[in-house]
Design a protein that fits this description.
Elements (H helix, E strand, L loop, with lengths): L3 H8 L5 H9 L3 H14 L11 H12 L8 H13 L20
Helix pairs in contact: 4-5
Amino acid sequence: MVETSALVAIILEEPGWRQVAEQIVDLSPSAAHLIVLDITSRLDVEIRDYASQAILHAIAAREGFGPGRRGLNMGDCLSYGAAKERRARLIYVGEDFARTDVNDHV
């Protein structure tokens, strides 16, 4: 699994991400969607439906690692839930997930 922060880092072609981020702010949602589809195709990353059982893992992440504890936001919790449900390794950028058990099961 690839967490959205990793995709954004790739799409923004770090270094120099701030300059690109300013351009992305002006993108329409449909244009941003096309960029995501293009990069996921080039990287051979599959976009999958969110399994309803993953919600239980997302809730557990919010309760265990949410704001005030480990700092996962709701989007992070959804990524955590999907990774736990699929027993998949989560690729991410930053340190938020390093404080969780998301990759302990793989």
